[in-house]
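Dear colleague,

Following up on Tuesday's group meeting, I ran the structure prediction for the two-component complex that the binding team flagged. I've pasted the input sequences exactly as they went in, so you can double-check that nothing got truncated or mislabelled along the way. The structure tokens for the whole assembly follow below. Feel free to forward this to whoever is handling the docking comparison.

Inputs:
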Amino acid sequence: MKKMHQRIRPWLIKKFALPSDVILELPRITIIGQLHVYIENHKGLAVFTDNELKLKTTKGYIQIKGSSFVLKMMLPEEILLEGKISDVKFISN
Amino acid sequence: MKQIQGSYITGYVTVLVEGNMPELFFQDCINNGITVWEIKREAPNACSGNVKLKDIGKIKSLRRGKNYKVSFTRKKGYPFILSRFFRRKEIVIGMALSILLIFFLSNIIWKVEITGVPKDIEEKIDKQLRDYGVHPGAWSFTLDKPGEIQRNLTEDVPELLWVGVHKKGTTFFLEGVEKTIVEEGEVEGPRDLVASKKGVIKNMYVSKGLPKVEINDYVEPGDVLVSGTLNEVEEQGEDEEEINEKEKRILVASEGEIIANTWYETNVTIPLQANYELLTGKHEKKYFIGFGDFHLPIWGFGSPEYEDIHREDTKNSLYFFKWKLPISFIETTLSEKTYNKIERTKEQAIQAGIEQAKQELQLQLGPDAVITSEKVLHESEESGKVKLSLYLTVEEDIAKAQPINQGD
């Protein structure tokens, strides 16, 4: 039953052009140059230091590295990071 | 970003969290609905972030049972500025005093401006106004309404035909119109005296002119009483002769008083019962400051022990600069009054009715007329009222000047 459910979702996205982040509960990451990273649909903060931000998602973690990080805003499922971003990495479980 | 908008107005606090993995404390905050922004790593085991002033209570309760040290490092926003401001007593007192001063000065008459009248009348008005208490330096809320001043002024200064009073801020503007006393439109030159009313001639005092009527003659309005043409000739004969005669005529301005008996019929209605209120003259004054409908007494407490009270309120609004404040100064005069009831018999009612009719007629005819006799023509009683039909005889001057048309 669950397999059926999971198969049907990509099909829905393909056929009806629905936004994939909503249907699959994936994070949506918007990066503006090296300045800002805006992450929606995350599942919580794991690590935050001056040069690293690690967020939980449904399928693992997102790791963002850089320097002089500041969390400009934090809301239940959104985060706005400011600083000098060098890389964004997906770490799966 | 709208979540943190306006936080400067409501106030926000920078929180410093110390302990193992301090960012997780902020995660906890967010899970509990507290918005956090500007999160920074201050040290390996310390994080700082901004939270709204209203969320501080929640943060304190979250801190309980956790291994974090939470301290508030910076306070920003209007609530803190205000509290810092109010901590400085001198400034607050100074500010309050200056507002009070402006408030007082806004309620003082600064200037009385009189326009439109010559200097002497202006002085007269100024003196009268001083009597009413309108002068520079007076409290504007103790004064009468401009309309009332206007009425009193036109009564007390007879030279004034009209005066417009209006108050604009702290200035009283008066605009006067002088009365130009016009000589009564006497007919100049030759004239006759004619009757203005019908009546029977009683007395004649003719100082100039040729009387045309005699005592006990009945005259109709328009009849010539005294002629201004002295050697009037019968208009007969040939045309040429008439012209000659006309040239010889002597025309004078006739003068005289023709007293005649005239009569009037009036109807009056007199109730058999009447209620009226009378002020006994005892009164007390009270002063209030009113905020909308609420009146705060400032002078005159307790109510006088009058049985019936006639209440009169005068309300004057207070101003701050030019703005009317919702505060007003109210002066209440409580006067004792008595209710009186009179019941009259029919006889008394008729007497009262006659008196009333006489007074009305006298008012209408002026003080020179003398009412000589009255007679009740008809009386009827109806639903507590007596209806009278009266016949009044009056002696009055019925002469009226009429210019003689000289035909030129």
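The CA atoms of residues 50 and 69 of chain A lie 5 Å apart.

Cheers,
M.
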